[in-house]
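Project outcomes to date are best conveyed with an example. Our students and postdoctoral researchers have been running inverse folding experiments weekly, and each run begins with a structure described purely in tokens. The record below, which covers 287 residues, was selected by the lab manager from last quarter's runs and is presented without edits.
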């Protein structure tokens, strides 16, 4: 595989633009089989209704059981076992669908299961399964309503599902309380997620935030426990590991993809972070 395939949201599937949908795994099985390693451009909450299969999210593998829910953010690397795809369905939506209505632009990323520092991408919702299932059915009914497809009703149903899942996720993963968020750190994380392939220096992100590099360094260490430089480098290495594991891109091509001036600097950084060269990491991963 030369590069990782990305699936984009079919915005006009129902004629007019609609940024929310419910799809069965049976209906998308052919796409999963064609590109079992892929990313999504949208948010995905997959509900598993049978005991079978495995799904990896960003190199962490999950064995799937009935009642499990798996959460994917845009650009997460998903790897399905294409020979054993379970039964189930996915609730999918674009961030814009909620942000066009809610004033809180960090609403989605502050949900425990979509947060950058989430503990796991999977929970079991046996306790609230019937409640969630009813809400999903209501979404499906509204989407299929030829006369309406009322977006306010759909947003309200989606909001209720997201909050119920957030409460259940917090209980499952012993999330006691949220750390106080610094608005600069929230924006820094969002900027890094968007721009880390192009910009590696702290100065760029400080300039974008209209603060000094020293202040960004101070608040990053306080909120994230590491310097902004380390946070950026961790993102770069995480992306490099994914490309080494799931594509046939050469080390030089990966270095170019990550905007390094020459491969040797990329190799030195990778070795410093992992104690392996990129090729050693690739060999160990695919053995």
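After processing, the design step wrote out the following sequence:
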């Amino acid at each position: 595989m030369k590069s990782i395939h990305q699936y984009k949201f079919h915005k006009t599937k129902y004629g007019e633009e609609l940024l929310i949908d419910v799809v069965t795994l049976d209906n998308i099985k052919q796409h999963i089989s064609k590109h079992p390693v892929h990313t999504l451009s949208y948010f995905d909450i997959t509900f598993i209704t049978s005991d079978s299969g495995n799904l990896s999210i960003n190199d962490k593998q999950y064995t799937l059981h009935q009642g499990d829910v798996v959460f994917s953010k845009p650009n997460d690397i998903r790897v399905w076992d294409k020979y054993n795809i379970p039964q189930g369905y996915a609730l999918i939506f674009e961030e814009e669908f909620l942000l066009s209505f809610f004033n809180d632009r960090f609403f989605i990323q502050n949900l425990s299961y979509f947060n950058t520092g989430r503990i796991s991408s999977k929970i079991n919702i046996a306790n609230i399964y019937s409640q969630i299932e009813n809400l999903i059915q209501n979404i499906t009914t509204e989407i299929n309503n030829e006369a309406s497809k009322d977006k306010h009703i759909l947003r309200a149903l989606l909001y209720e599902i997201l909050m119920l899942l957030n409460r259940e996720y917090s209980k499952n993963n012993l999330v006691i309380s949220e750390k106080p968020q610094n608005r600069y750190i929230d924006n820094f994380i969002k900027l890094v997620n968007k721009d880390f392939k192009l910009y590696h220096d702290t100065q760029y992100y400080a300039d974008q935030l209209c603060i000094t590099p020293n202040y960004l360094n101070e608040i990053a260490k306080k909120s994230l426990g590491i310097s902004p430089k380390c946070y950026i480098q961790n993102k770069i290495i995480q992306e490099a590991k994914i490309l080494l594991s799931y594509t046939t891109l050469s080390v030089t091509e990966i270095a170019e993809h990550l905007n390094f001036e020459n491969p040797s600097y990329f190799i030195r950084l990778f070795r410093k972070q992992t104690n392996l060269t990129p090729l050693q990491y690739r060999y160990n991963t695919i053995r």
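The longest helix spans residues 151-172. The longest strand covers residues 43-48. The training component of this project remains on track.
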